[in-house]
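USER: Study each token:
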Amino acid sequence: MKILFIIILVCTSVVAYPQQQDTIVKGSLTIIQDTSITKLLNNESVLEMIKTVPGYRIQLTSSANRKEVYNLKTEFLNVYPNVRAYVTYQQPYFKLRVGDFTERTAANEFRDLIQAQFPGFIVPESVNLNTEKE
């Protein structure tokens, strides 16, 4: 009985011991998917149903003064008319956020481009999938 207890104790401690990986193995990954999934993903009507995706915007200001935020929005749109600008209200602040970036690198590049004239910072947000401005 004592031996059985020791064996169980040793086995549970070995299983519970965290395993560490010292090396990173680089390789390739092959994804095998049904052709109907590919057809479905390429179907434009499906993409139109998806309105937003996780992404990033650049927040230019946050102020309790609504007029100040809308003035900055107008100024921004005069310089960048093809970039969407959004004003949201989260009590007690109005926030001006611009862009619809699905990748953080694209948001960084645009922020760097506008930083001199419109300083801001990147925030995670659901962004519009269709980035064409109406």
In short: Helices lie at 2-16, 35-42, 44-49, 66-79, 104-114. The first strand starts at residue 52 and ends at 63.
